[in-house]
Amino acid sequence: MRYAIVSKGLNLAELEKECQKVGGERIKVLPAARQVFCDLDEKQAERIALVSGLKIKPVRKVAADSVTPAPYPVQLEEVAGGLNLYDIYNDLRQAYSPPLNGEGLTVAVIDSGIRESHQALTGKVVYSANFSESDTDNDIFGHGTGVAYLIAGSYGEMSGVAPGAVLMNLKALNDDGIGTDEMTVEAIDRVCSLVDQASQLEMAVTDPMYPNTINISLGSEDDGDPDNPIRVACRTAVEEYGLQVIAAGNSGPDLSTIMCPACDPLVIAVGGIKNDEFVIWDQSSRGPTEEGEIKPDLVCWAESLQVAGNDSDDHYQVKSGTSFAAPILTGVDGLMWDLARRVYGPTVRITYYDWLPYAYAYCVKPEGVQTDKDNAYGYGIPAVGAMVSQLIKPVSATGTLMEALPMMMVVAMMPAMMK
């Protein structure tokens, strides 16, 4: 059986040595993620579990969040088939010169692969690696391509949120949309290693080969264990490599259905709302987590979204799921960072970790829903206009918005909110 060996005080060399001492096979050391994986039989597992300074956990399956495809493909002229993010964010992008497009953001998409030759994604992928059981890093399952599109896709009058961003294609799910936490951790480990390489080469944080954010629209059941291998890897990515990790989950509508790694306090968990009315999408995962953490953190549209398809280079689909709400907010992060560099200088970096303490000032919830963070809406959906206002004129020490400067754009909100 395959196990993850998580350090509780031992270094990697010591972890590897303990695996060797009990006769472990196929030992894999992932230095950036601070973990070791190996094959152990029942007796070997019992022996190594007694070693002080480590924790042993069986490798578990992970899967792409469930999606709901429409029964038809979407052609470019059929924009009524789903929510086209070009219509939502184009006014905001064009309000600035040069247009605000998220340039400088590099997102590592850990998923089922990306159809890199798709007309809306051509030239967007700067790095590819395959950690799955499949032979190709292409997207056969049809999940990662849609995620990638919503972040950075662009073709004609169809686009994702931040068409100036670039992508890294880290395939951790096979052609059936299934993987393991080992494959996921290995992908996270590679992203951390790429941050190390970029830092050593003194690359600017906006360099295409310098990953900034991990979008991880997959997961497994929350086991309530902070030493879960994927959670450990995500926290390492955030705390030691400065990465932002954004994840999702489609296990609702019951309470305590937040998936792993979205359940971790350091992972930005994204829930879903419907497009035509401001209510939680039925399958969006709810908190609290097994450890009592209020989740999700934020919500965004998760129903009937136009995305790039994986069947051909001009294939589009309408899909639903928090899998696709998460990359929308990943793209919004790119737009806000683009604007922040224009306001505060090229070296500034802001993420949702900076935004969340001020969520009351830029997030929106339906009337009648508690204003504090809750286990369905989290803080709410980010109102982009309010976020721009904060960047131009920050929140005061008293916790209220200071007088806003004249705005060059409109709030990018859905029609239901405008009403």
Description:
- The chain is globular and about 65 Å long.
- The protein has helices at residues 12-21, 42-49, 85-94, 144-152, 181-200, 229-241, 322-344, 352-355, 384-392, 415-418; strands spanning 2-7, 25-30, 35-39, 54-58, 61-64, 106-111, 125-130, 154-155, 158-159, 166-171, 178-180, 213-216, 218-221, 244-248, 259-260, 268-273, 298-301, 305-308, 316-319, 363-364, 381-382.
- It folds into two domains: 2-59, Alpha-Beta Plaits (2-Layer Sandwich); 63-354, Rossmann fold, CATH 3.40.50.
- By secondary structure, the chain is an alpha/beta fold.
- The protein starts with a strand and ends with a helix.
- The model is unreliable at 67-80 and 395-419 (pLDDT under 50).
- The strands form six sheets. The protein has a seven-stranded parallel beta sheet with strand order 7-10-6-12-14-16-17, sandwiched between helices. Strands 2-3-1-4 form a four-stranded antiparallel beta sheet, sandwiched between helices.
Task: Outline the fold blueprint.
Layout: E1 2-7, H1 12-21, E2 25-30, E3 35-39, H2 42-49, E4 54-58, E5 61-64, H3 85-94, E6 106-111, E7 125-130, H4 144-152, E8 154-155, E9 158-159, E10 166-171, E11 178-180, H5 181-200, E12 213-216, E13 218-221, H6 229-241, E14 244-248, E15 259-260, E16 268-273, E17 298-301, E18 305-308, E19 316-319, H7 322-344, H8 352-355, E20 363-364, E21 381-382, H9 384-392, H10 415-418
Parallel strand pairs: 6-10, 6-12, 7-10, 12-14, 14-16, 16-17
Antiparallel strand pairs: 1-3, 1-4, 2-3, 5-11, 5-13, 8-9, 13-15, 18-19, 20-21
Helix pairs in contact: 4-7, 5-6, 7-9
